[in-house]
Structures are given as C-alpha cells and as structure tokens.
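Fold this: Hypp1251 protein
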Amino acid sequence: MNYLVPHHSEHELETNPAEAEALTSGKRQAQVLQELDRIRSEKQRLEQGVALKQGQVNREQERQMQLRQDMEVLRKRNRAQLTRLRRCVDEAERRNEQWNREACRLEEATAQLQREVEGDREGAWTQLEDATAQTQAKKGEAK
C-alpha cells in the first residue's frame, strides 16, 4: 500500500476526473512529495531555531549564575568592610571617651590649682597683713 497517495474509491475517481488524472499522471504524488519536502525543511528550520534559543537560554543561565557568584563575593566583601568600619568606629568612640575623661580630669586639676593659687594669695595677704601688724606693734612697744 502506498502511503503517499491517498486511497480513493472508484466512485470518487469517476465523479472527479481532475483528481483521477492527477493520480494517474503522478502529479498528485509529486505535490505530496513537494509538500513533504517543505514540511521537512520547516521542521529543520524550527529545530535550528529551538537549538539557537536553547543556546541563548544556556548562556543566560550561565550569565545569571556568574552574576549570583559575583553578588555573593560583593556581599562578603561588604560584610568584611562593614566589620572593619564598625571596629574603627568602636575604637574612635573608645578614644573619644578617653579624651573626654582626660579633659575632665585636667579641668578638675586646673580648677584645684586655681583654688590653691587663690588660697595662697589670700594666705600671703593675710601673712603680709599679720607681719605688718606685728611690726607696727613692736614699734609701738619700743616707744
């Protein structure tokens, strides 16, 4: 049985003489073979298109995987940098606190020294006044 030529009943061939002529002359077979070649070419073109698209999909997947890896590297680098910066800030805060304590201590020491200097001045004036009074008292007794 020939699969390329459709099976036609005798009645169909008698009522359609053009179809009967096409079948007997081989025109119909040539048309079917042409159509089959066209379909095969279309199939090959579509398969090539699918292969091209699959290649594009594979390249895109590889690109995305590389981007994920790059992003992970950047995340790790940023975490490390953030850790270093936090340490720097902590150290700067500690130093600032030390400077503040030292400044406070120095201010207190300065105030204490100023009080002592003022006290010494007052004491010196008092001593001077006492000495002057004693000197005058001695002069008064000597007369």
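Helices lie at 10-15, 17-25, 27-142. The two ends are 171 Å apart (CA to CA).
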